[in-house]
Write a structure and sequence with these properties.
The structure is a single chain. The longest helix is centred in the last third of the chain and has 11 residues, at 68-78. This protein has helices at residues 16-20, 68-78, 92-98; strands at 3-5, 26-28, 33-35, 55-57. It has one domain (3-85): Alpha-Beta Plaits (2-Layer Sandwich). The mean pLDDT is 94. The strands form 2 sheets. A two-stranded antiparallel ribbon has the order 1-4. The chain has a two-stranded antiparallel sheet with strand order 2-3. Helix content is 23%, strand content 12%. Bound molecules: iron/sulfur cluster (SF4) (2 copies).
């Protein structure tokens, strides 16, 4: 079991979540972040940090987001670790608003 980043993170890439992760298990590419399921210790600290509610406990994923389990595992193997907050993508504010998070 692990926590999983889903598609709300796409085109946002706010990185509030990485600051609180005690085991540095976030990875990322130019589009979004992913959680390494081998490293995540299921602490849940990242969930309330995400302004667009992109992070789920794997066991509580809605059916239409289950595919992100595989995506996170695969991408975590091929993308670099992200351990510090970075500037959000230029599209982040508009994306956040479009998702209904003000
Ligand atoms: S805080 Fe949320 S939107 Fe931002 S990088 Fe983390 S998971 Fe993605
Ligand atoms: S649940 Fe904890 S260990 Fe897992 S990604 Fe979030 S902050 Fe890191």
């Amino acid at each position: 079991m692990a926590f999983v980043v889903t598609d709300n993170c796409l085109r946002c890439r706010f990185t509030n979540c990485v600051d609180v992760c005690p085991v540095d298990c976030f990875h990322g590419d130019q589009d979004m972040l992913y959680i390494d399921p081998e490293e995540c210790i299921d602490c849940g600290a990242c969930v309330p940090e995400c302004p667009v509610e992109a992070i789920y406990d794997e066991s509580q994923l809605p059916d239409d987001l289950v595919r992100w389990v595989e995506v996170n595992a695969a991408k975590a193997r091929t993308t670099p670790t992200v351990t510090e907050t970075q500037d959000p993508l230029p599209t982040a504010a508009a994306r956040k608003k479009a998702l209904g998070f003000g």
